[in-house]
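Data card: per-record layout.
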Amino acid sequence: MLSAVEVRKLYNTSNTGRFKIACATISMAFIFASCGSSRPKVITTKAEAREYQEQAAAVKPAGRTITRNNTERPDTEPLEEEPAVEEQPLEMTTLDVAIKTAMEYQGVRYKYGGSTRAGMDCSGLLHVSFAEAGEKVPRNSMSFFQAAKPIDVKEVKKGDLMFFATGRDRKKINHVALVTEVTPAEILFVHATVALGVTVSSLNEPYWLGKYRSSGRLF
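The structure for this 219-residue chain is written out next.
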């Protein structure tokens, strides 16, 4: 059987344990209440608002900088330029050279028996023009008429000859011209005239249509 002293010690020890357990229980309740159940603080002054903003800025995570590529991409791939092809000049025929040469004398005054830029007559113009093309041809209108193959006016083409009688004898050939262009509407020819010198005329002109006698082909 326990003595009175031993019973008092046991009581004191029991009370001390209970006191410690009670204290621990109160502490845990306070911790839980402060962490999870506390109400948020209500901001009522400007000073509190400023303090709140400073605290929020202090804990705000650093923002991530995003770099955008502003380089525009083309919708389609650029087309490669094809190398330029150098055009080869077309080889000129004898008639092309003769016509080109005769046309270059446009504006030269008329001179009977002339065959230079100082003065030119109709047969002299054709003589130097065909000579430039490498062909030897007659020197006067009648000789051209005799050397050329007669053709109908409907068969005339560029490079053919046209013969006229401009003197008192309406049958005598005394003028020759070189055809430069033929269209369904007209025939154009280059020649040397007394009034205009070296020029281009049309068979549609009443004067030359009235003086026309025949056509011929040399080449």
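Known properties of this structure: Residues 10-14, 19-40 have pLDDT under 50 and may be disordered. DSSP finds six helices and eight strands in the chain.

See the next section for split statistics.
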